[in-house]
Automatic annotation (TrEMBL):
Pfam families: PRKCSH. The keyword Disulfide bond applies. SUPFAM superfamilies: Mannose 6-phosphate receptor domain. It comes from the Eukaryota. Residues 206-247 are annotated as: Disordered. Its main location: endoplasmic reticulum. This is Endoplasmic reticulum lectin. Belongs to the OS-9 family. GO terms for biological process: endoplasmic reticulum unfolded protein response; retrograde protein transport, ER to cytosol. GO terms for molecular function: carbohydrate binding. Keywords: Disulfide bond, Endoplasmic reticulum, Lectin, Repeat, Signal. Residues 224-242 have a biased composition (Basic and acidic residues).
């Protein structure tokens, strides 16, 4: 444990602040005598298991311990399916034998979403020849990363240099090995103690709290509640019940210490986010690779690419029309259920139709998309998964999963229309 402190002066007031840093090295120092990472991944390599990532044009196939393939299918009505494909890397027999013997004493790490993450690399050469590199075979490194709840899905795939690729795969199989477990960054508490007759809380901090409270309560509070808040203007309005801190304050020398910590999003902020989502002003974004997607509820679905020189290229995949959706819902399932353990029905997916997109060059007809809304459990209200499929030419399915949707799925009526929960 390391302790550092500072004397903080604020408008003639004096505060003694200290931060506690804890370092836990015990787990890392333990001797590990279990299976090697290659042995932990061996069940995945032995079975005929493949993971897929579907993007706007290409589909990526990772058959673990066998090959990485990139392909696109052209589906013309009444005609044979044409497949355009490239093998980005394959695993030969001698490569797989070497894999069983390889042991990394120095575990490599990669910055994934802002965190240095340990991974186990598997190299695959012998891919399709690359004309841009003097017909050298394509080459891929698959990075296996521990994630206890994963199902061997592809997190990212990137062409790091011409015809050389890097694939990140999440798997629970590596997690038993201590060197491959994800290490979260510690959050350190800061404790401040008033000195020399100074108030327990700086007045500027109390003022900031009052301003934040007003921002969090724009239109949901009644006039009587606003009057009551006005009468309490001289007292600190922040209560632990309304702002539950992730860190509890300590008591030192008989004085309660002010804890500077992260607060959870409040109920009112949740309601405001849902209100903005249903009004179409809060849009969800996602997608990996060349194309990204924007979904604005009750407005549109856009596919776009941003270029530093040429700006933003937008394709309208679908636009909202209430009458068109109702006609579609009469012939299709707009609201599907699943049975809970107690036998009760719960809405699982809500589907909406968006038509009148940009005209497709291949069909001469406007693009259209079915948006499937699903719940995504997450501590962050802004976590979102957006993916697009193209089962038929210029006819799309957009999957949207977000915590914002969880609280409103059960409000869906027979047409799949959502509303603010009561």
């Amino acid at each position: 444990m390391d302790l550092s402190a500072v004397i903080y002066f604020c408008r003639s007031y004096i505060f003694y602040c200290r931060s506690l840093f804890f370092f836990f090295l015990k787990d890392d120092m333990k001797e590990y005598s279990g299976p090697s990472p290659a042995e932990l991944l061996e069940p995945l390599f032995k079975q005929s298991s493949c993971s897929y990532r579907i993007e706007s044009y290409w589909t990526y196939e990772v058959c673990h311990g066998k090959h990485v393939r990139q392909y696109h299918e052209d589906k013309e009505t009444g005609q044979k399916i044409n497949i355009q494909e490239y093998y980005l890397g394959t695993m030969k027999k001698k490569d797989s034998d070497f894999l069983k013997l390889s042991v990394c004493s120095q575990v490599p790490t990669k910055n994934i979403e802002g965190q240095l993450t340990p991974y186990y690399p598997v190299e695959m050469g012998h891919g399709t020849q690359c004309s841009l590199r003097q017909n050298k075979p394509r080459f891929t490194t698959v990075l296996y990363v521990c994630h206890p709840e994963a199902k061997h899905e592809i997190l990212t795939i990137a062409e790091v240099i011409t015809c050389q690729y890097e694939v990140v795969v999440l798997t629970p199989l590596l997690c038993p090995h201590p060197k491959y477990r994800f290490k979260s960054s510690p959050v350190n508490d800061i404790f401040c103690q008033a000195l020399g007759g100074s108030p327990l809380r700086p007045q500027s901090l109390s003022q900031l709290d009052r301003e934040q409270e007003e921002l969090l309560k724009p239109s949901f509070s009644s006039s009587s509640e606003r009057d009551q808040r006005g009468s309490r203007e001289d007292t600190p309005p922040v209560k632990e019940e309304a702002y539950t801190s992730t860190h509890k304050p300590l008591t030192v020398g008989g004085q309660a210490q002010v804890t500077v910590g992260t607060t959870h999003i409040s109920r009112l902020t949740d309601e405001q986010l849902i209100k903005e989502f249903l009004s179409g002003s809060y849009c969800l974004h996602g997608g990996v690779g060349w194309w990204k997607y924007e979904f604005c509820y009750g407005k549109h679905v856009h596919q776009y690419h941003e270029d530093k020189e040429q700006g933003k290229n937008i394709v309208v995949v679908g636009s909202w029309n209430t009458e068109d959706h109702i006609n579609w819902a009469k012939k299709n399932v707009a609201r599907s259920y699943h049975l809970k353990d107690d036998g009760a029905q719960k809405v699982k997916v809500v589907s909406h139709f968006y038509g009148h997109g940009d005209v497709c060059d291949l069909t001469g007809k406007p693009r259209q998309v079915i948006v499937k809304l699903k719940c995504k459990e997450s501590e962050s209200p802004h976590a979102v998964t957006v993916y697009m499929l193209e089962p038929q030419t210029c006819q799309y399915v957009l999957g949207v999963e977000s915590p914002v949707i969880c609280k409103i799925l059960d409000t869906a009526d027979e047409n799949g229309f959502l509303s603010i929960p009561s």
